[in-house]
């Protein structure tokens, strides 16, 4: 089984990870190496050709693909950081780009009708 991790910017989750937030993430390639798992670190399009062979290899593996920091992904969950540093994610039905509260509520089942402001 192979796992593919997409990374935007110099580090995984660059928008959340910072000294100011107190949040940091391990380098996935170094973490895989620590467990003896083969890893591939793709930093440019010229290295894409290594991906098929990597995925065809037997056993576990991790492939980190660095993406352009300007790449947008939608829809997506957009977490908020609270004053105490806690990260809070919205419900799956409330993904970015956000709809107005009335439209979200109109699309929910009666059991889901409570929509956060």
The 3D shape can be described as elongated
> CA-to-CA gap between the ends?
41 Å
Number of strands: 5
Round the Cα radius of gyration to an integer and report it: 18 Å
Structural class: alpha/beta
Order of neighbouring strands in the sheet with most strands? 1-3-2
Mean pLDDT: 75
Q: Please write the string of helix (H) and strand (E) elements.
A: EHEHEEEH
Question: Share of helix among residues?
Answer: 10-25%
Low-pLDDT regions: 9-15
- What about the largest sheet? 3 strands, parallel
Number of structural domains: 2
Strand content: 15-25%
Number of H/I helices: 3
Topology:
Blueprint lengths: L1 E7 L19 H7 L4 E4 L8 H6 L4 E7 L12 E2 L5 E2 L12 H6 L11
Protein model, in words:
α2 links the parallel β2 (39-42) and β3 (61-67). This protein has helices at residues 28-34, 51-56, 101-106, and strands at residues 2-8, 39-42, 61-67, 80-81, 87-88. The relative contact order is 0.17. The protein has 117 residues and is α/β, with parallel strands linked by helices. It has two domains: 2-67, no CATH class; 80-112, no CATH class. The protein starts with a strand and ends in an 11-residue tail after the last helix. The chain contains three helices and five strands. The protein is elongated. The strands form two sheets. The protein has a three-stranded parallel sheet. Strands 4-5 form a two-stranded antiparallel sheet. 16% of the residues lie in helices and 19% in strands.
Features:
117 residues, alpha/beta, 2 domains, three-stranded parallel β-sheet, two-stranded antiparallel ribbon, 19% strand
């Amino acid at each position: 089984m192979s796992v593919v991790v997409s990374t935007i910017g110099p580090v995984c989750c660059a928008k959340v990870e910072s000294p100011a937030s107190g949040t940091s993430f391990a380098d996935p390639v170094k973490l895989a190496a620590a467990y003896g798992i083969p890893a591939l670190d793709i930093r440019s399009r010229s290295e894409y050709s290594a991906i098929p062979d990597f995925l065809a290899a037997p056993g576990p593996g991790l492939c980190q693909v660095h993406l352009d920091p300007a790449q947008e992904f939608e829809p997506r969950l957009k977490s908020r950081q609270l004053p105490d540093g806690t990260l809070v994610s919205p419900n799956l039905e409330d993904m970015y780009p956000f709809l107005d509260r009335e439209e979200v509520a109109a699309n929910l089942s009666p059991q889901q009708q409570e929509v956060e402001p």
